[in-house]
Amino acid sequence: MPMILYGLCGEDPSVHFSPHVWKAIMALRHKGLDYEFHPVPFTEIPKLEGGFSPTVPLLRDGDTLVRDSFDIALYLEKSYPEAPSLFGGEGGQAMARFVEGFSQTVIHPAITRIAVADIHNLLAPTDRVYFRKTREARLSQTLEELASNRFTEAAEFPRKLEPIRHTLKFQPWLGGDGPLFVDYILFGAFQWARVTASVDILKADDPVRTWFERCLDLHGGIGRSVRAAA
């Protein structure tokens, strides 16, 4: 029986955009594991699996439930050791923790400020009410105020990527000779922006964009299965 991965979607269930869910998708594909993807809107997440988790991704593997993208990766690594490694050892796991911190403290806040109003517009009416209330409270600005600054935020975004560019000078993937979970962490963030943002955050000649395009082609091109924002 295949695993079930629950992931966030917009009003169109084919448009799933959560950066954390994309990490889990890429981890499952990397391991070559069979799974079913169940798209879920924001306001339905608390009802999943008896209220097991307030957030997605949420993975069911038989009788086991796992939440949080990093915990899912650790679970897959431990439970399916015969499949390709997501970390390449303890050093790779430690590096992934560091990059996760960089992504969530530097990259995610920037993409949020750029794309938050666009995300709102992808949602069903009930979810739009929830999303506006929670995000405006969290960000201390209206969605319209945030949207008015998105071009300025997007113009400043490339300078935040210098640590990634530096790494890619020495190796084709953040994980070294091949992609690892550390690549999927940052891929999830850029995929989030690709699917939601009305502003392009990566310049055509940026090495990070070249790397991202290669990530989109991984695992049968699963990253390209969801259309980019118009």
Automatic annotation (TrEMBL):
PROSITE patterns: GST_NTER
Domain GST N-terminal residue range list: 8-84
InterPro entries with a match to the protein in the record: Glutathione-S-Trfase_C_sf, Glutathione_S-Trfase_N, GST_UstS-like_C, Thioredoxin-like_sf
Pfam families the record matches: GST_C_7, GST_N_3
Domain of life, source organism: Bacteria
Gene3D superfamilies: 1.20.1050.10, Glutaredoxin (3.40.30.10)
Protein name: Glutathione S-transferase
Organism: Rhizobium aquaticum
Lineage: Bacteria, Pseudomonadati, Pseudomonadota, Alphaproteobacteria, Hyphomicrobiales
